[in-house]
């Protein structure tokens, strides 16, 4: 059981999700499962109190790049629009991989499965 606050993936469809989750949900269908799954890993890692401040800054930067409209490659371009977003998220995951615990992975899987109905 997690020692820190988690988001119940079962409520994400019926309630308005808070803050960053709402923004990730807004781009979820366009970005695809791969991008969203990795973004959720970062989201749940940043909520863990064991994640240090430097790692939180890396995570917030990567998630901001995903949800902000200014990108190196605009998101509206079919097939390649989210490749730069994915690259930034993967780089952030590599930097903070130590803080992606099994509990964080499980929470991200549950949320992604709920959003993508698997």
UniProtKB/TrEMBL annotation:
Cell compartments where the protein resides: Endomembrane system
Positions of the DUF1232 domain: 56-90
Taxonomy, superkingdom: Bacteria
GO cellular component: endomembrane system
InterPro entries on file: DUF1232 (IPR010652), UCP031804 (IPR016983)
Topology term for the membrane: Multi-pass membrane protein
Coarse class of the protein's main subcellular location: membrane
Recorded coiled-coil stretches: none
Record's keyword terms, sorted: Membrane, Transmembrane, Transmembrane helix
Protein name as annotated: DUF1232 domain-containing protein
Organism: Advenella kashmirensis W13003
């Amino acid at each position: 059981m997690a020692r820190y606050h988690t988001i119940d993936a079962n409520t994400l469809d019926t309630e308005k999700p808070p803050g960053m989750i709402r923004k990730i949900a807004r781009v979820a269908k366009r970005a695809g499962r791969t991008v969203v799954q990795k973004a959720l890993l970062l989201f749940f890692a940043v909520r863990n109190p064991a994640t240090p401040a430097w790692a939180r800054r890396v995570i917030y930067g990567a998630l901001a790049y995903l949800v902000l409209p200014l990108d190196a490659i605009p998101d509206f371009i079919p097939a390649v629009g989210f490749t730069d977003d994915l690259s930034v998220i993967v780089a952030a995951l590599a930097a903070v991989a130590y803080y992606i615990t099994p509990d964080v992975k499980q929470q991200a899987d549950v949320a992604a499965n709920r959003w993508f109905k698997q």
